[in-house]
Amino acid sequence: MSSELQHENHLIQLRAKLNERKIKLWEVPYMQVEGDEQRHSNGVEMLRLAVQFGAELGIATELCLRTLTALQRNALDKLQSKDEFQRTGLATVRVRAPTQTGSNREFDLKVQVTETGGQLCELIGQRLSLDARKIKLVCSGKIINGVRTLQEQKVSNGATVMALVMACSEEEAKRECSTYDRVHKIRSDAEMLINENDSSNFLSDQSGNAIFLPKNEKQALLMGLTLYEKGKAAMKADSCEEALLLLLEADHDFRNCNSQLLNVVDNYALLNLDIVWCYLRLKNLNQLPDAEERLKVCELKFQQSYGKNMARVAAIRGEQSNEKILLVRLHLLKAVLYFHQNKRDDARTMFRVVETELLKLRIDDDCLSRLMECGYGMKECRIALRACSNDVEAAIEFIHSQRETRRVNERRSERERQLYRTIGHDASEGGDTLRLKLELVDQLMEMGYPEELAALALKRSANDINGALNELERNGEALQAELLRTVLVDEELQAKLEALGFGGQVAQVALKLMANDYDRATNYLLTNVQNGRYSEGLQRAIDVLERQGGSSSSSSRKGSVSEGTDQQPAAAASDQQPSTSKRTTSTSSDTSADEAKRQERKRKKEMLDLLFKSFSQDIRTTADAHLDLPLDEEMNLLEQYKKLLGME
């Protein structure tokens, strides 16, 4: 048990005794007032109080006296700073700087509330002999803005500010200087990746199901989720200072997202849970008001996602669902909060609940070894054994069931994304009400209609299958024209079709109509091009494509264009080449410009691939990683607090 935690325990108990008996240590008889109203501690009265309280609480008299004296000194300092603030506007701010050694550096600073957060950083940097740009300040669960004034951010006299810095050894100082820079680089990298992939309106849940997001909310939510993942990676690496910064940054982005999605998924609940966990790991108990509010948010979100007491999850997955592991940490943090609020009976009750839950979630080492010998990974095994109460055979079935469910959902989600891209469906303002129903698409495909045309018809009819059938029967040509307009041709597939002897224009038409499906496009051309002649349907599609702006530059580059000759040998096709030098110059210019664009796209893609690889290397890859907690830290904390509460 840490001495810091033991000292906090004594402070909590003595403070409660003083409040209970309405004893004010800054007044007579515990203070003596002499000439010029100078106050001095009355040693006799303080000793008498220490003997009395020490006997009642089981604290040694000397230790009790030191703690009471510290409380008295703190009370006098607060009175003095309050008086000074009222007279001069000069506020006293308590600064706590957690270190990696587990202790806290604490000191008071005088500052005008009209000064900015950046100026407070400068003062703290001077006090700690650190570059102020490398310090981040947190107060009441929010990162202090360096530009706005302290008054605007509700940082006033008596506020406690956490300064996120590291210990000052040479090696740790290097890490300290990199923390600020790393957090800002992570945000800028995330912004670049999200902006470059702005066309996607989907995310996926843990099971691989696609989740629709309106465009105006997508970016904030994606940024929040991305920073949250990086924060969890920092937690796993035991870098709690960096983790807390990233988690609070993520919290800021989540708060900018108005999506109702946050009410039905557990990401925001887990974020709040992890922020409070970081407070505890950093021993920053002065953030208790924010911690209490965050745990309330977490508990409410869990109830919305899982049902009260996990009832909804238990009904679907059984009593031993892995989601219960989240309740262990929530209940543990609530118990710790009760302890520091001196609600000791409530704390004891909640710690007993935690102890029972931990026993139920204990993993049998022999079962774990047997399951891993079958070739499954550690995380997958732990999750499965917890879900199946250490039944190895059931755990194997659970693993395969989970894998298959995810595979099915991911295939369905990818199909939905691809279909939306193909038909140019933009439901960004309509939410789930404008999502196409794939089961209706499948019904139309069973009737013989191509998938893309079926989807377009459903899009026009707002998922009314009768209306879609009417569209397909009466407006088939209009649907084909729309498909020709929306689908972007895959140049590599076009080149493969041209290599078979088909002209560039008909290759484009086939790929557009078949949504870049090479096999279907090949079959379409073999069916609709006979002896160099086009079917009426293909000819109409070519005419529509020409009216929409003609074929892409790739067909000009290949020079294989003309009506009626696309399946002729190359020598015959050459008769159709442009004959004037002006057309030749134009084609050459277009080819050069297209090549430059392709090279630029290739370079940008390579850069983004490298950035993504670097950015994502420490982010979890398994969907259920948040359910795979070893629970060792939870067990250690439980034992520490049980000792403080005399529960052994």
From TrEMBL:
Residues 455-482 form a coiled coil. Residues 546-602 are annotated as: Disordered. Transmembrane segments: none annotated. GO terms for biological process: regulation of ubiquitin-dependent protein catabolic process. Residues 549-591 have a biased composition (Low complexity). Keywords: Coiled coil. SUPFAM superfamilies: UBA-like, Ubiquitin-like. It comes from the Eukaryota. Pfam families: UBA, UBA_7, Ubiquitin_5. InterPro entries: NUB1, NUB1_ubiquitin-like_dom, UBA, UBA-like_sf, Ubiquitin-like_dom, Ubiquitin-like_domsf. This is UBA domain-containing protein.
